[in-house]
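Blackboard transcription, Thursday session:
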Amino acid sequence: MDLTLSPSEAAFRDELRVWLAEHHPGEDPPGDDEAFEHRREWQRKLFEAGYAGFAWPKEYGGRGATMVEQALFGEEMARAKAPSPVNVLGMVMGGPVVITHGTDEQKERWLRPILTGEEIWCQGFSEPESGSDLASLKTKAVKSNGDWIVTGQKVWTTYAHKAKWCMLVARTDQDVPKHQGLTYFIMDMEQEEVQVRPLHQITKEPEFNELFIEEARIPDENVVGGVGNGWAVAITTLMNERAGLGAAAAAGVRMGLEELKQLAHDRGVDQDPLIRQRLAQLEIEVELLRLNSWRGLTQIMKRGVPGPEGSLPKWQWGEINQALTELAVDILGEEGAYWDSPWTYRLLRSRANSIEGGTTEILKNIIAERVLGLPKLR
Amino acid sequence: MNFDFSDDQQAIKRTAKDLLADRFKLERVRELADAGAYDEDAWKELCELGWPGIFVEEQYGGQGLGIVELIIVTEELGYTLAPVPFLSNAAAGLMIQAAGSDEQKQRWLPGIASGEARGAAALVRGGEAKLVPDGDSAEVIVLCADGGASIVERSAADVEPVATMDSTRRYARVRARGGEPLPGEVGPGVGAGLLAVAAELTGVAQRAMEMAVEYARDRKQFGRPIGAYQAVSHRCAQMLLETEGARSATYYGAWTADAQPESLELAASMAKAYSSDAGWRVCSSSLQVHGGIGFTWEHDLHFFLKRAKVDALLWGSASEHRERVADLSAVGEAAAV
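(Written on the board underneath:)
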């Protein structure tokens, strides 16, 4: 057991820390379009410095980083409060799918513009009636004269209005069990048949969109991984272990906790016994998120598969972030009601943390079935 | 960066697990608990294997291994609920090794390492320690009060055995004053002792979780195993979250004790606070999964539930250790990580 960084890991972290201090893009400017272009610029800077597509193999323009480096990268980005690069979905989901399942032509066509931020990617998986039960999705693709004609509706599509490409899962066979009739497409968003409508969330931001697809056209060469293999391909995206995700999440809530402690101090409640108990509990849970993440990473590196603790960080992170923002608003008291308070925003935004990227209930099902070996309900 | 045991440590874990599984089957634990006794033969065997002295420096008759090795063994002792006077003796040895003079170490550590002249550790408040594991059978008692520690021989202390809800271990009340001060800094010994309890709680939680999962797979109601119902399976997932949290906190704390002592005090209080809550909640939740049978004396689960509660109350409760965590991580203190 050795929880210190090796000299090369420490050197990597220090170099990154210096680079981030020098190149930090600052806060997003006001206005959605301005913020978007700001983050596209940030993506470009990361690319030029060799930090975009960090986990991708070198032959595809990535850095071929080790898992520890990926975790450190996530930690340092969170620590520096650096914004996500604009094409994060392309880099963590689309690119890895094309690298794993794509043809040489597909790799040649799509990979580089993901990293540079020239072509933005969005994800068309969830539908209004298919959330946790993704395989029940109804969007339909029918072959016609060598092209696929797609009709259906998608939801929770980040950056759909800016995206060039959509990772789309659609049903291509109605007559087989639900997991077998799906195909994974890369759909061109620049066509009349795809309409985007912003979806305002409880913070009033239009962070996500709805997609209305009415006979959109996808050429056959945009199928990834073969017709009928959509579920397996989509699962590799979802399961594509973003090493260091847990470590990054831990570093993110660590920053939040330090702000919260400062708030308690500034408001003169840091000697209140009840507040101290809640702060200490958060202190412990933030630390445990970090420790579980590194333990999970060690298991993956040594054994190729995550251990039981590897399934916990997403769940832990949601609970911690929700408890953290609740305590902050309790400390603020009446001012916690104010719409323009940053903690109020965070309180509301964190409600999604136990839903987005897999609900806590689904995570518990996965743990119960795959880790503990309990019988399936279905 | 490597958050896992070395091959040697893995071997210790396997050996401990196998040996204890054989010596302390639950029928045997129950027999001993009913008699209020320890398994003297098994204890002798563990002593011959050098377990009590696992962390004691070789010059004082120990094996000279670290706190990581200590908590590996302690976790397995918790998992089997082995009725042997291991924890108390280890806690006393840790404090004497941390803060004792060379003379005190020479005088006491060899007996602790061999198990022939055991120690016990007492947290004294207002001249009295209310919950001292094995206070009635140790040769020597380390009295730990605010800011320092001292040693008294048991014969010089007022020791009164107390019956607790945990019948797998013997406890006493100890009243003693003065004693021979340990001149050094006792903090690292206290921290390691807390981690040993946290490890025991981790083992207890692991076992209670396994019992719940096994029962939820086998027990059928309404025509299917109860583990297929999310009300039950999500409870079990929560047990995993808390058990693994206790484990991560304990392993990390043990590593700081061996390799990064400046982080030990905070890490130990975090581990004790979290595992105290986790041990109780996992056992309690396991009882709920078992339903009525889990509430009976004939089922073994209650031994784990009771040990978890007594361990949680021992050497500072979860709330007390959270208060310590709040102090050590307050604004202006050195960052936790």
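Lecturer's comment: The longest strand of chain B covers residues 128-133.
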